[in-house]
Amino acid sequence: MMPKITIRKATGTWTVRAGGAVLAESRNALELTEGDYPLVIYFPRDDIAMAFLDESEQTSHCPHKGDARYYSIVTKSQTLENAAWSYEDPKPEVAEIKDHVAFYSSDRVAVEQI
């Protein structure tokens, strides 16, 4: 059974920071909730400093969203392997996340509403 996936516009302004740099800032981010998983913020590519992201060889498959490709975050001080992902050709049920990137929040990557 497919977990319920809900996608809606995230309220307010959201940012991603890593290695002392602001990687993204958006008022057009999307909030995705899937079953009991924590919500995930997806940022439009146009609101991301894509120069900080280096496509990695990592991929994964979600039966509900499709195939994901991963990116490492490269800053002056560090490289964070596979710290972001996107669905280039998502399943029709989640088509809104196409051209968006999500980031793993951690002690080195801050994804937060400002």
Automatic annotation (TrEMBL):
It holds the Pfam family NTP_transf_9. It comes from the Bacteria. Residues 15-105 form the DUF427 domain. PANTHER family: BLR5716 PROTEIN, DUF427 DOMAIN PROTEIN (AFU_ORTHOLOGUE AFUA_3G02220). This is DUF427 domain-containing protein. It comes from Roseovarius tolerans.
